[in-house]
Amino acid sequence: MKKVVTLADAVSRIPDGAVLMIGGFMGAGTPPRLIDELVRQGKRDLTVIGNDTARPGVGIGKLIAAKLVRRVITSHIGTNPETQRQMIAGETEVELVPQGTLAERIRAAGFGLGGVLTPTGVGTVVAEGKRTVEIGERTFLLELPLKADFALVNAKRADYIGNLEFALTSRNFNPLMAMAAETVIAESEDIVPVGVISPDAVGVPNVLVDHLVGKERSHG
Amino acid sequence: MDEKTLIAKRVALEFKDGDLANLGIGLPTLVAHHLPAGIDVFFQSENGIIGMQALPQEGLAWNDLTDAGGSPIGAIPGAAAFDSALSFGVIRGGHLDVTVLGGLQVDEQGQLANWMVPGKMVPGMGGAMDLVSGAKRVIVAMTHTAKGEPKIMKHCTLPLTSVRRVDLVVTDMAVIEPTADGLVLKETAPGVTVEQVLAATEATLIVPAQVPVMPISA
Questions:
Q1: Which of A89, B81, B141, B195 is deepest in the core (most CB within 10 A)?
Q2: What is the pLDDT of residues A73-101, one digit of tens each?
Q3: Average pLDDT for residues A126-143, to the nearest whole number?
């Protein structure tokens, strides 16, 4: 199938300085082989949009440790001391975004919206420099869409044409990010024949996936 | 009983049968262990599940079933999983009955600061700002003082998590209810006097004629 590419080929399409959305939450649902290959190919000056930077040696934490990330847009770095060190040292720029706002900014980009109005962050440092809008009795912050050049998403199962199915808490940001990037690269634990994933179980429709990372043969 | 267990056992009495609740990391997670008999609560984890429970036993960890700290959990029958937009829609949209969060400071207006100490600790707000802005009920579970310094202040000196007034503050010394008129001292912990609470609190407290002793769950 034309969608299936090798791991090296998938990552070679990503230039230095690219803006990447990377699925996952503390490493759960982060594509492990794509992360390792980004490190192996030594991609530089990346902007990473992701929920967190996990822990050292886990998920996005591997990119931080390898100093491949120039800027990260995320809700939480508290579990990764190396991200905090790089931020304080001025090596990595960190934009902190409330988690629900991060999800909605990504969703807005992918769903063709000009932004979202959220009560989260009103009256706090998060509101600095942002427009507020009064709707009825309430004040909302205008939060703008977040787009990326590439989304790197991880599925539990994919089929040959790129329909993706997710499992429990590994779903998290993956379906949102698959809508919000120019190019979507998906990785999956298993790749199964078309029809094995029932239409109702598809979390990301195949038309959104540009490249599916093929699997090595483990036997046979 | 240590101070965290005391706080957790008092907070546990705030739940109603069938509540949907989200517990912050740390002290708040202890609350789940102390629910009174007959009170069944659905716990949300903001990474995308309603119906989480503790990992039933070692050896059952699964990479696709984790809490917001990335640690393995279990799930009760009837649990449901979903993406981050729906998870925060639940939180922001008024569907979450109660959240229990830790605190660094609470002020006389009942506003909470719990996500950063400028220059010292900048972990990020994670889901805290959405939880405080959106939950129907916000309970702060925290020690009354930090290294002897009051955490219940006239004005928070740390950056606020939300301008929303929280609903209840439970500490190892007292239960305090923020109201439009100010902070009302509702209960004192066993063995703690009203005077001791006042001495450990920077904010002005409204002290009713009768201040009962804090009940705790069995």
A1: B141
A2: 999 999 999 999 999 999 999 999 999 99
A3: 97
B83 in a structural domain: no
Measure A149 CA to nearest chain B CA, in Å.
Answer: 21
Is pLDDT of A127 > 80?
yes
**Would B66 be classed as within a structural domain?**
no
Q: What is the pTM of this model?
A: 0.97
How many structural domains does chain B have?
A: 1
Known catalytic residue at B177: no
According to the CATH classification, is domain A4-213 in 2.60.40.1230?
no
Tell which of B47, B92, B114, B158 to mutate to test the A interface (max A CBs under 10 Å).
Answer: B47
Domain-embedded: residue B215: no
Report the residue count for chain A: 220
Residue A111 burial by Cβ neighbours in a 10 Å radius (0-12, 13-18, 19+): middle
How do the pLDDT tens digits run along chain B, 218 residues long? 899 999 999 999 999 999 999 999 889 999 999 999 999 999 999 999 999 999 999 999 999 999 999 999 999 999 999 999 999 999 999 999 999 999 999 999 999 999 999 988 889 999 999 999 999 999 999 999 999 999 999 999 999 999 999 999 999 999 999 999 999 999 999 999 999 999 999 999 999 999 999 999 88
- Reported as a single tens digit per residue, the pLDDT across B180-195 is 999 999 999 999 999 9
Domain boundaries of chain A, sorted by first residue: 4-213
Instruction: Kindly report the nearest CA distance between residue A16 and chain B, in angstroms.
Output: 27
Residue B133 lies in a domain: yes
- CATH code of B128's domain: 3.40.1080.10
Note down the domain range covering B134. Answer: 3-35+96-206
Which residues of chain B have a Cβ shorter than 8 Å from any chain A Cβ? Answer: 45-49, 62-70, 75, 81-85, 87-88, 91-92, 121-130, 133-134, 159-163
Q: Which residues of A172-206 are buried (b: 16+ CB within 10 A; e: fewer)?
A: bbbbbbbbbbebbbbbbeebeeeeebeeeebbbeb
101-160 in chain A: CB under 8 A from chain B: 101-104, 107, 118-126, 156
* Coil/strand/helix, residue B211: coil
